[in-house]
Structures are given as C-alpha cells and as structure tokens.
Amino acid sequence: MEARLNGFHHVKLPVSDVARSRDWYCRVLGYTVDIEFVEDGVLAGVGLADPGRTAGIALRGDPDRAVAMKGFDAFALGLPSVAEVARWRERLDALGEPHGGVVTGARGGSVLVGLHDPDGIEIRLYADPDDAPTSGGPGPAGADGGGA
After folding, report:
1. Same structural domain, 75 and 133
2. pLDDT tens readout for residues 103-117
3. Closest Cα to residue 52, out of 70, 78, 74?
4. Residue 132 half-sphere exposure, CB side, CA atoms within 13 Å?
5. 3 is a domain residue
6. pLDDT band at 138, cuts 50/70/90?
7. Which residues pair with 36 in a beta bridge?
C-alpha cells in the first residue's frame, strides 16, 4: 500500500500580535477567519482560509519566535498563472503594500518577492511557467533566492 500526501493542510506562523496579523492577512491576501483560539479570554491564535481553501494559514501568538522568523521566506503561495503574479503586484501597489517586485523563479515562471507581514515574515507569491506540466515543489536555489 502506498502512503500518499495531499499537499499542505496549513502552515502555522508565530506572530507578535494575533489581531494585527489576522487583519493584515485578511486585508492584503484575502484570507478569512475560519477559527479563533481564545485562551483565558485572550485571542491566542487563528486559523485562516483562502478563498479556494487550498492554502490554510494558522497564526499563533508567540512574539519570541516571530522575531526569529523576521526576514525569512518560509513558504510561497502558489498562483495559477504568470499573469496572476502581475495582478497581485497591481493589487499590492493599490493597497500601498511595499514589496520587492517580480523576479524570475528558479524554474522559470514569476515570483513576487519582498512582501512582508506585520512581523517581517516574507510571503512570496509564485507561479510556475504557464507551460509547466505540473505545479508546486521546490527547485534548486536560483535567482529568486530560493527554490520555491
């Protein structure tokens, strides 16, 4: 019997202020709150869902670890096409969200780099080349500073 994986269920990130980060992920990336974790009357974490429910993000209050993650790009959100990367750049510009622009990915395609959440964690938006037979998975380190 083959044991299989079916992608990520969610990625959990440490944040210094759960409410502030929740608001940013919802406003900037279009996430919605799926579940809140309240402990002793304090918002300790949230589970967020993207519109397609394919790239869940959990945020957990942990200021020390959030500081340690600052500047690190732990993951990239997949986009369906290279054209979508340009649309996201336009959206971020309209929102006044600073970013590092679009670069060519390690396997071609496009990557929007330099978008940072309120704690400085870098979020990359990645589209494989439009003619790629499959999507996802890291490639070798390349011009975008990492595989994925």
Report:
1. yes
2. 999 889 999 999 999
3. 78
4. 19
5. no
6. low
7. 46
